[in-house]
Amino acid sequence: MPDLATMTDAELLSAYQQTTGEPGDPIADALAAEIERRGLDI
Fold first, then answer.
1. DSSP per-residue string spanning 1-42
2. Phi, psi (5° rounding) for residue 2?
3. How does 7-37 read in b/e, with b if 16+ C-beta sit within 10 Å?
4. Mean per-residue pLDDT over the chain, rounded
5. What is the pTM of this model?
């Protein structure tokens, strides 16, 4: 996975949509945290 800070908003949202979104999934959790930090809607 690329560095979250360098991903565009669209790339970030797309990457999150490709995960299960389940709590405890480290990739989904990292993406969700960055989405929240940026103030984006999932």
1. ---GGGS-HHHHHHHHHTS---TT-HHHHHHHHHHHHHT---
2. -65, 170
3. beeeebbebbeeeeeeeeeeebeebbebbee
4. 94
5. 0.87
